[in-house]
Amino acid sequence: MSRTLTVLDRVLVLVLALALVALGVTAVVWQSGRLSQLHGTLRAPWLTAATTAGWWPWATGATGVVLVILALRWITAHITSSKVADVRMAGSTTAGRLTVDLGALATAAAASVQDTPGVRTTSGRALNDRGRRTIALTIILDPHADLTTITTATDQACTNIVTALGDSATALRVHLRTARTTKTSPRVT
């Protein structure tokens, strides 16, 4: 989500929260009977005249259509694509284009760490994280794994990714998790 959309979300949530608080206070005051103690009467004769006018159904219908379009636009603005586009390589020309599939690169990087002692499972994926292409590697370790060996293997995998891409526009994230239980070998009886 962009910063503008985040700020707009927060402002609209604040306005909605204030409106709901005002509505709640009004309901409490009305239920307690203190609303009748207020002096004066609220009158809106123009509203009665407007609702009986011939343009009123058209105006409310047009307002409804505009609100539906705004709601659909709002929903589509919040839908983020998890698919990362292929990255164009430096050797591309008008005669041909060289691209790298970041998802396949992430999977290959995760597979290169898989055979490291102490690693149970690995996974890699390419994603858009706050508008930036990111390769995320998740590595699940045995509880007693040697972190120096794991760090060396993940550093090598990240170096291979940077070398393959040839630029630093793609962020790398490595998430190490320790397995909760010790892996037991199957019992044979």
TrEMBL record:
Sorted UniProt keywords: Membrane, Transmembrane, Transmembrane helix
Highest taxon above the source species? Bacteria
Residue ranges of the TM segments: 55-75
Q: Any idea what this protein is called?
A: Alkaline shock response membrane anchor protein AmaP
Q: Which organism is it from?
A: Rhodococcus antarcticus
